[in-house]
Amino acid sequence: MTSLLKPFLHDRFLHLLVVLGLLLACFIPFKLAGLPRAVDWPTMVTLYGLLMLIMARFA
């Protein structure tokens, strides 16, 4: 389990994004249950696909 988490523990950019996301979530006027409706899921899927292509290129 620690080998799975180790890369994330050293990723400062990920830490910044998580903290920024939590901070911004405090100022959002809608409830947490409505958060999935606020996410543009087709864009997220596209970004995930691009990330997979980039990772496959450098693997």
TrEMBL record:
The chain crosses the membrane at residues 12-32, 38-56. Keywords: Membrane, Transmembrane, Transmembrane helix. This is Membrane protein.
